[in-house]
């Protein structure tokens, strides 16, 4: 019996050694975790730290917005303010990349305004208004009222566009640009000096063919002759004509007109007649002047419907902004934080909620 037990022990031991032998051979030569694996395991905390740094930087900046209807000033964190601007300035059903481009333009405009030594067109204590004089801004109550049942979905989408570009601005020669934007082009954008007084090297005329899909691309309306003459302070010629369009800009808009000897700029005609754009044609129809316009807005900088058209064909937000703004860089706003002038723009990030 003992010899049988001993034999069994020997057989079991043999099989244990046989099964364990491959592990014994492999383990001594197995490689330790590679440095790449260790770095990958450590990278999430590093990325999170970088994101937190950007968040701390942006949340340290406050924007004082003059609420024109209430005649009060609301002060809120920059990124929260931008959600209200993007939501007011661009339809929430636009493509995500277009919304990101809008967030970038709005943030750049805001930073430039905060850096300005003199704030124009706002009451004391405010940085900007909530109107087209600066940037249109809606607070949360207004967005809930405008969007109704779609509030959660649309707000989340706008928030994502702002968050995904957090801290990014557009610069030219290491300074924030004048990031102007408008609704719809006539097929081209405008050189800045053809509408405003100053020529900016990054605000150059470019083709914008996507805008033809905009519901605001064309408009035709009529104005009684008496109203037309009164608003422009002109007397129409007696030959049944309106006037002569003397010249057009690189952006195909009206530069100058001559109405019975009175020379005016296309911008003056647009503003005094409240036209959608400076790309217009006119003719007499009975006792009225019929005006046909293309585009909507001043035409300088980024076309919003053009941005959406670019996004629909697969362009990214960086593709969009570098197309509409020449030779600019997409960079961080961090170097400009220390330059903020007013004390109320810089606060402890823990209180900026």
From TrEMBL:
The chain crosses the membrane at residues 7-30. Keywords: Membrane, Transmembrane, Transmembrane helix. Residues 32-48 have a biased composition (Polar residues). The keyword Transmembrane applies. The keyword Cell wall biogenesis/degradation does not apply. Residues 32-56 are annotated as: Disordered. GO terms for biological process: sporulation resulting in formation of a cellular spore. It holds the Pfam family SpoIID. One of its GO terms (cellular component) is outer membrane-bounded periplasmic space. Residues 67-172 form the Sporulation stage II protein D amidase enhancer LytB N-terminal domain. This is Stage II sporulation protein D. It comes from Aureibacillus halotolerans. The lineage of its organism: Bacteria, Bacillati, Bacillota, Bacilli, Bacillales.
């Amino acid at each position: 019996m003992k010899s049988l037990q001993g034999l069994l022990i020997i057989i079991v031991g043999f099989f244990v050694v046989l099964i364990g032998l491959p592990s014994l051979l492999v383990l001594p030569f197995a490689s330790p975790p590679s440095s790449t694996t260790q770095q990958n395991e450590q990278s999430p905390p590093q990325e999170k730290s970088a994101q937190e740094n950007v968040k701390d930087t942006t949340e340290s900046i406050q924007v004082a917005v003059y609420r024109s209807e209430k005649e009060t000033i609301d002060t809120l964190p920059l990124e929260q303010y931008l959600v209200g601007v993007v939501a007011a300035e661009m339809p929430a059903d636009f493509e995500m990349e277009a919304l990101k481009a809008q967030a970038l333009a709005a943030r750049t405009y805001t930073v430039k305004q905060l850096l300005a030594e003199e704030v124009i067109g706002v009451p004391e204590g405010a940085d900007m208004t909530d109107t087209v004089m600066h940037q249109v801004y809606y607070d949360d109550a207004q967005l809930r009222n405008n969007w109704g049942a779609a509030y959660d979905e649309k707000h989340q989408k706008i928030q994502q566009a702002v968050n995904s570009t957090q801290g990014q601005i557009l610069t030219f020669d290491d300074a924030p640009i004048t990031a102007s934007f408008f609704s719809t082009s006539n097929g081209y954008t405008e050189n800045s000096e053809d509408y405003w007084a100053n020529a900016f090297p990054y605000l150059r005329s470019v083709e914008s063919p996507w805008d033809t899909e905009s519901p605001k691309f064309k408009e035709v309306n009529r104005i009684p002759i008496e109203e037309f003459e009164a608003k422009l302070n002109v007397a129409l010629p007696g030959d049944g004509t309106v006037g002569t369009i003397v010249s057009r800009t690189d952006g195909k808009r009206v530069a100058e007109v001559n109405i019975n000897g009175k020379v005016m700029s296309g911008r003056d005609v647009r503003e005094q007649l409240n036209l959608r754009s400076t790309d217009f044609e006119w003719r007499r129809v009975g006792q009225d002047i019929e005006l046909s316009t293309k585009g909507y807005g001043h035409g300088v900088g980024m076309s919003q419907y053009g941005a959406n058209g670019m996004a629909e064909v697969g362009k990214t937000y960086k593709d969009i902004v570098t197309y509409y703004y020449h030779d600019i860089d997409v960079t961080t706003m961090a170097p400009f934080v220390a330059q903020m002038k007013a004390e109320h723009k810089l606060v402890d990030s823990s209180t900026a909620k």
